[in-house]
Amino acid sequence: MDTRIKAIVEAATLLFLRQGYARTQISHIAKAIDVSVGTIYHDFAGKKEIMHFVLKCTIDPDFINKEFERPITDNLFSGVENEIVSLLEQSQSDFAKHLENDVESYSFEALISDAFDILARYAAGCLFIEKNQFEFPFLAKHYKACRRKFLDTMSRYLTIFIDNGTVRPMEYLELTTTLIIEILTWWAMDRRYTSFETSDIPLELAKKICVDNILSAYRS
Questions:
Q1: Rounded to an integer, what distance in angstroms lies between the CA atom of residue 128 and that of residue 58?
Q2: Diameter of the chain by CA atoms?
Q3: What is the pLDDT of residue 187?
Q4: What contacts 24+ positions apart, CB below 8 Å, involve 41-44?
Q5: pTM of the model
Q6: Which residues pair with 44 in a beta bridge?
Q7: How wide is the angle at C-alpha 72 spanned by C-alphas 71 and 76, nearest 5°?
Q8: Which pLDDT score is estimated for 198?
Q9: How many Cα neighbours within 13 Å face the side chain of 12?
Q10: Computed from CA positions of residues 23, 56, 198, 116, in that sequence, does the dihedral angle turn out positive or negative?
Q11: What one-character-per-residue DSSP string does the chain give?
Q12: Rounded to an integer, what distance in angstroms lies between the CA atom of residue 108 and that of residue 122?
């Protein structure tokens, strides 16, 4: 792994998420890792290439370990937005699969654990789309549709668990489902990148705290 590429990508990820893609300049990224602007341009042709690198790493975490010709150009990222949409749709399909096959063997704890893992795995990419939706309308359109499907799928699971007595009754199912998802989202995504005071709590510990409290609150 090229340590400078890694540093550039990590700094750019935080800046894109916290102050937005449009407001982030190459000079901001350079300052964040204490290198010159020229050094950044030695490694990347421009800001768009850095952004696409960040998104590519979201869908392929091992991408950063490859060897790259410098400067990295956008030719390397042809079709990356379509890849992201396909990944979002596949993740949603995988999340819903127990509804069609083996819902009786699926547990409330497994549901919450799986939901946390999905949100944590694609945290940077999802937050990037949320924070930059007007600059990237194609991604935002599909992401919003996937968020709606995620909510609907979670509601369907919870309805089944309520009916079989696993989960306590909920007077306002959709609102309570939204609350559960927001709890998961904060611990899996925002806490790491965009909360007012970000935290370096290990991800597994964050998951344990999140899952334990949701189970305690809603399990019958």
A1: 10
A2: 62
A3: 95
A4: 41/71, 42/70, 42/71, 43/4, 43/5, 43/8, 43/70, 43/71, 43/72, 44/8, 44/71, 44/72
A5: 0.92
A6: 72
A7: 150
A8: 83
A9: 26
A10: positive
A11: --HHHHHHHHHHHHHHHHT-TTT--HHHHHHHHT--HHHHHHHBSSHHHHHHHHHHHHH-GGGGGS---SSB-GGGGTTHHHHHHHHHHHHHHHHHHHHHTTGGG--HHHHHHHHHHHHHHTHHHHHHHHHTTTT-HHHHHHHHHHHHHHHHHHHHHHHHHHHTTSB---SSHHHHHHHHHHHHHIIIIIHHHTSSS-----HHHHHHHHHHHHHHHHB-
A12: 22
Residue 116 is encoded by which pair of tokens?
A: 């946390």
| 213: amino acid identity, one letter | N
Using alpha carbons only, give the angle 71, 77, 79 rounded to the nearest 5 degrees: 160
The number of angstroms, rounded, from the C-alpha of 163 to the middle of its chain's C-alpha atoms is: 31
Q: What is the reported pLDDT for 216? A: 97
As a whole number of angstroms, the distance between CA 152 and CA 159 comes to 10
d(CA 182, CA 176): 10
pLDDT for the residue numbered 1: 56
Residues 6+ apart with CB under 8 A from 162: 168, 169, 170, 173
Tokens of 25: 């300049």
> Tell me: the pLDDT tens digits for 24-82?
999 999 999 999 999 999 999 999 999 999 999 988 989 999 999 999 999 999 999 99
**CA 116 to mean position of chain CA atoms:** 10
